[in-house]
Amino acid sequence: MARENVEDIMKKYGARLDSSVRTNQTSNSIPASIEGSSEFQKFKSDMLPHFTRYENWCNNLGGSLKLKLSEKDRQKIQKEIDSAHLETRPENVVSLAMISFILTLFAGILLSAAIYLLTFGEKQQLSPIILIFFLCFLTAGFLFYYFYTMPSRLANQWRLRAGSQMVPCILYTVVYMKHTSNLERAIRFASQHLDAPLAFDLKKVFWDVETGKYSTIKESLDVYLESWRLTNSEFVESFNLIESSLFEPSEARRLQILERSLQVILDGVYDKMMKYSHDVKAPLTNVYMLGIVLPTLALALIPLASALMNGAIKWYHIFIIFNLLVPFFVFYMTNNMMLSRPGGYGESSILEMNPLYSKYKSRKPYWIAFAICFPILILGLLPFIFQYSPVPAWLGLNTDYTFTQVGLSFLGDAKLFDYITVNGVTVGPMGLFALILSMFIPLAIVLFYSIAYRLKTREIIDSRNYSKILEGEFNNSLFQLGNRIGDGTPAELAFARVAESSRGLVTADFFRAVNSNIQSLGMPLDKAIFDPKRGAIINYPSNLIATSMHILVESVKKGLQVAAASLMSIADYLRNINKINDRLRDLLAEVTSDMKSNMTFLAPILAGFVVGLSSMITLILTKLKGLTDIAQAGAGASSGIAGTITGLFGVENLIPPYFLQVCVGIYIIEIIFILTKTLVVVDAGPDELRSTNEIGKNLLSGGLLYYIVALIALIALSSIAAVALPNLV
């Protein structure tokens, strides 16, 4: 009877197991180990929300269009999907790209048709309609490319972020295995003290074993390491050395191999970054010349070119070329440089894990910045408010005034805004005052982002800088702590002695707080450091300090000598990594400093002079037009040279300097955005917090410099034009 019951139970649960295995195997793209773990899904959603959003778009919107791909394309996209750890299918990726292309193109057709019908098919309106459709077509093509290549970019982003955590990963594994030669526990310890995405990968190594995909941790780890062999071979080699240490009978030899594994990855990172620092110099120089210098110089010729071509060049052409196409070209070139950056070096902390992250994500700074900058923006729009809105009539004002009427008689009878009507077509504003007001538009944009980004990052960047100060001092303090414990002093007493010897340093307060919890409150060592209410670590937000203390607590259980050796290993690592970081900063300093000075100093100065020059050209041609009109009224014919010049350069065909200045100002803002993010990635890897903070600073310095230089150049060159034409000003 008992035998029958056992057989019934085996059949019953065996059938359920077979059904579950078949269900997992039929999943198109989601591995069984991931699909079966709600903890894994929650971890990924919390740590990598932007990945999850893209996956939702692919699986929902992309899944609505059924496409069949060639096997070659499918394998290529699937490889990128696997590298980026996305839970979607290659068909969904291509479908999302195709749907975005179709919808954008359809919207462009509808918009063009609506404008055509509203203008009743007027011939002069066909050119803008064709331009709008062309822009929509370009946008559709860009969106297709953007979504189609998204898995590749996400895979590279994953690689860079994981690469920046590889050195700490090897460190934690080595330090743990020095006192406990157990690969499984060492990897688990490393996964608990690293941030995503490398912690995500290491946990997946365990889950693959737990779900039966692989039989041992070593097998699962070896398969995972193969994905890094081409891009981070030193990481693979270091782990191979760690694995080989398990089979060494000699303790001294085992420790030597572990130390060698850490040195291998440090040397590999240094060699790669040194090569990258040399390779990136030429591309960055090309970006500056082709993306900043040449376009800015070309802007100086735009007013004359527009007049010579009988108005074929309009202000919206300038906007499209210099505010859309050129920035996209610069973004494409800099994006290729960022993609070629090797991993293994850079900021490794995850912004989402910071306790102040909620303040960083708050929308309140944007509303504060908007309230400050909106009045400035209104000042920049005053020429259009006076010309095209009923506001002046409500206030009993004229649509325009001369400088004499507003009490600036030394500037003559020129109009403030100076709209010109030729053959029933109104062009402008051409006036000097209107041009000055136009500068408030880019100024408002600069101040908006500078204020918002400053408010967003002020507290959290101060917290990170404080942590870096702590980590910089922690090396020596940790060395002292290891020496005290190595001399036979219990860890609980060693904290008091290190606090006394490091008096005056920031880290002394940390050791003093641990000692106070032990002596005054009677807490054990682990509670004195990590207690959620009174633990000393609460006021010291540093992953390095927290992990070092976890290693201390763990190694003390093995004995004082083991704990001392662990702390000394961490101290040696910190000293070595600081030396390497200093060398790498020296290698990259020339590139980054040159580009930053070009971006925030030379480019704004050059652009400011271009605005002043275009203003002078427009002013001279406008005054010559007035001279011709006077001559025609008095003599009934064109007046010699002036008539020839104004006949050649029609004032009505000029691009108003108001629009040119706005386009130049926005162009400088876009360039600062793109190049600042590029320089941060080149210097420290993907770092959203630092990028945001640096953009705010560079916008303020570069934007204000452009504003000041443009204003000075405008006044100076306009004065030159006034001297050249004394009878007309």
Overview of this protein structure:
Helix content is 77%, strand content 1%. The chain has helices at 2-25, 32-35, 38-47, 49-61, 71-84, 90-118, 126-148, 150-163, 166-179, 183-193, 198-210, 217-226, 233-244, 251-279, 281-308, 315-339, 357-361, 364-380, 382-388, 391-395, 432-438, 440-486, 491-501, 506-521, 525-530, 543-556, 560-635, 640-648, 657-684, 688-724, and strands at 420-422, 425-427. It has a two-stranded antiparallel ribbon with strand order 1-2. Helix 4 (49-61) crosses helix 6 (90-118), helix 9 packs parallel to helix 13 (233-244) and helix 14 (251-279) packs parallel to helix 27 (560-635). The chain is elongated. Mean pLDDT is 77; it is low at 1-7, 9-37 and 635-639.
Helix proportion: over 70%
Unreliable residue runs: 1-7, 9-37, 635-639
Main β sheet profile = 2 strands, antiparallel
Number of strands: 2
Describe the protein's topology:
Elements: H1 2-25, H2 32-35, H3 38-47, H4 49-61, H5 71-84, H6 90-118, H7 126-148, H8 150-163, H9 166-179, H10 183-193, H11 198-210, H12 217-226, H13 233-244, H14 251-279, H15 281-308, H16 315-339, H17 357-361, H18 364-380, H19 382-388, H20 391-395, E1 420-422, E2 425-427, H21 432-438, H22 440-486, H23 491-501, H24 506-521, H25 525-530, H26 543-556, H27 560-635, H28 640-648, H29 657-684, H30 688-724
Antiparallel strand pairs: 1-2
Helix pairs in contact: 4-6, 5-8, 6-7, 9-10, 9-13, 9-14, 9-27, 10-11, 11-12, 13-14, 14-27, 15-16, 15-27, 15-29, 16-29, 18-22, 21-29, 22-23, 22-27, 22-29, 22-30, 23-24, 26-27, 27-28, 27-29, 27-30, 29-30
